[in-house]
Amino acid sequence: MTWSALEPQHYTEPSVLERERELIFDAQWVPVGLVSDLQADRDFIAAEVAGRGVVVQNFAGELRAFENVCSHRQSPLRTCGRGNGPLRCPYHGWTFDSAGVPVGIPQRRSFGDMSPSLLQQLTLDRWALEVVGPLVFVARKPRESSLRSSMGSLASELTDVLQGARRCLDRSVFELGCNWKVMLENGLDAYHVPLVHAQTIHKHGLDELAREQHGEHSVGRFAAASSARVLRALRYAYPEASLSERYTHFLLYPNTYVVSVYGLFVVVSRIDPIDASTTRFESSVFVSWDGEQGNVTLREEVNASNAAFFRNGYQEDKLICEQVQRALRYTERKALLGTEEERIAMFHQSWLRDLGRA
Amino acid sequence: MTLDDESLLGLVHAAIDEYNESATVPLGKAEDTPLYGGGALDSLGLVQLIIVLEQHVLDRTDRALALAADKAFSPARSPFRDVASLVAYLRQRLQEE
């Protein structure tokens, strides 16, 4: 066992979140959307990463990410989550090209002679972007130049899992009244499952076989007591799919979970801070098999059942995490972490390193 | 091979018994026990029950029925909505084939 390296105020103080924005979220790769929403020329998505807006746009087949702020008068360039159209600011109509340079400026003469250096100054702030499987990842000022290198020793396994995620079955987005780390740490421990998920996840009898640290990331590997009968049913519904008996839970530091369920379903969740005690949870469930053999209706029912299973679990987590946040406001006690909560301690090591306190 | 209603009910009960051996939420066996659509079965549980029942039918009648028809998953009119409707569905399918 070990005492938590984090104090209660690390979960409540706005100043801590400010440092996290600069030292963690600006430097790390996070998934912000689906490639399937960006298939056509001019398709776009807009998202927030720890409160900072980013827009991803398809420019004639090439995806580019920019900070979602017009360089003219600070308006967001995109005010809805996705759509199609040129990258044009809704405020005064400035339009930007794939390099982020303003190429359409209404009443341009009113700005006098716009020199190349001024246009350079007015170029949008570009973010790094990579696509893995169905997901678009971005990073504002990535510490690792590529997503793959940031994944370290997990790169091969994690990339395989993500590239296997073929069709999105369900997306859920909701806000929680807790610090992002409360929800994140909740997902790193299976210790809470018997009580918090007594009627849902616990019934599958998850047994954690291994907890692994991979640099700043971590993995929990599980076997489910229910797996024999569940696998039999899944084989019936997905006659040609390649299934595994395992349930693997990855933390892609700092705030992304990737979960592989029986090698058939892939769940990607991002836990994004809105403020020190409000968090946005975004999750997508994918199926990794899109064959046509077997009974389609049956398979869709199983898919829907699986999506509902995850949604129910999230709501149970939300309730307990919001209760923890209320207590964190007045307690001075630090948490005590047992061996089943080792992955939380691993996360704390990375967090402390990034905030320069280690 | 023709089975009377008592034999069909026996097949369904045997399937439920086998399902319950590993079920997280056991199923009842009374004729009006809700199964799918308001009962203890979600769609994955329903698939598990179908697998077990198809095997019992095969063992008893030597006939391989595919019970997972599309309407099985309509909660309002599913033949798996309760034990009685499941017996009736089994009778109908055995008469058809």
- In quaternary terms, these chains amount to heterodimer
- Kindly report how far apart the N and C termini of chain A lie: 19 Å
- What is the element string of chain B, with H for helices and E for strands? HHH
- Helix tally of chain B equals 3
How would you describe this protein?
The complex is a heterodimer of chains A (358) and B (97). Chain A has 358 residues and is α+β, with helices and mostly antiparallel strands. In chain A, a hairpin with a 3-residue loop joins strand 15 and strand 16 (265-275). The longest helix of chain A is centred in the C-terminal third of the chain and has 33 residues, at 296-328. Chain A has nine helices and 18 strands. Chain A has helices at residues 14-25, 116-121, 147-151, 155-164, 180-188, 193-196, 227-237, 296-328, 342-354; strands at residues 2-3, 30-34, 43-49, 52-59, 62-67, 82-84, 95-96, 102-104, 126-132, 135-139, 167-176, 206-214, 217-224, 246-252, 256-261, 265-275, 278-287, 336-337. Chain A has a seven-stranded antiparallel β-sheet with strand order 2-10-9-5-4-3-6. In chain A, strands 11-17-16-15-14-13-12 form a seven-stranded antiparallel β-sheet, with helices on both faces. Chain B has helices spanning 5-21, 43-61, 83-96. In chain B, 52% of the residues lie in helices and 0% in strands. The interface between A and B is medium-sized, with 21 and 16 residues.
